[in-house]
Amino acid sequence: MLRAEGLTAIRGERLVFRDLSFSVPKGGALILAGRNGAGKSTLLRLLAGLARPDMGRVLWEETDALADRAAHGRRVALLGHQDALKPGLTVTENLAFVARLSGRKIRPALEAAGLEELADLPARMLSAGQKRRLALARVALSSAPLWLLDEPTLGLDDAAVERLGKLLTRHRDHGGMIVAATHIALPLPGAESLRLLPP
Fold first, then answer.
1. How much of the chain is helix, strand and coil, in % rounded to 5?
2. Is residue 46 helix, strand or coil?
3. Alpha carbons 26 and 145: distance in angstroms, whole number
4. Helix 128-141 vs helix 91-102: angle between axes, to the nearest 10 degrees?
5. Is 177:147 a contact under the CB 8 Å cutoff?
6. Which of these CATH numbers, 3.40.50.300, 3.40.50.980, 3.30.1330.30, 2.40.30.20, describes 27-41+75-195?
7. d(Cα 197, Cα 96) in Å, to the nearest integer?
8. Residue 36: its pLDDT value, please?
9. Band of residue 159 on the pLDDT scale cut at 50, 70, 90
10. What percentage of the chain reaches a pLDDT higher than 70?
11. Which region, left, alpha or beta, applies to residue 87 given φ > 0 means left and ψ of -120 to 50 means alpha?
C-alpha cells in the first residue's frame, strides 16, 4: 500500500499544496484532478521520490518510502509530460533497457500499445500519439507495482485510450497501483479521486 500523510510542497516562495493525505491499496487507483498549476505534477514527483515534501511523508507498506530512494525507484514507473524517448533508436530499442531490467518480453508490450507494425521504426518518425503509446508501453513493460501517470491520454485517439484502459485494468488485476493526473476522464473504473485546490 502507498500512503501519503500531511504532504506539503513549497516551490520558491509559493505554497503549492498543503496537508494532503490519502492511500492507494493494491489494485487501487487514484485520479488527481485540479486546474493547471494546482500541483498535480509536483505531487507525482514527490510520490516518485524525485523531490522531498516540505512537510509530511510518503509511506510504502507503512515504512518511509523515501528512506531508500533506489529501492523506491524500483517500485515506481513514472510517465511525465515528456515521453523521454531516444529519437535515433527504434521503437523496440527504446524498450530494450526496461525489458532487461524487468525480465519481460518486448513483444506483448508492443501489441498492448498497438505498435507491433512500427517496431523497427526510429522513434523520431512517430507521431505524437504513437510516441505517447511507446512511452506507455515502456511503463507497462516495467515490473514496478506503482504507476505514476501525468496526463497519460495526451495525444491519444479513441482507440489508443481504449488500449490504455486495458493496460490499466491488467496492471490493477495483478495488484498494481495507479496514481494519474488528468483533465479528462480516464478508463479507471472504481478509482478514487483527489481534487487539488489552491491553498
1. 35, 25, 35
2. helix
3. 8
4. 20
5. yes
6. 3.40.50.300
7. 40
8. 87
9. very high
10. 99
11. alpha
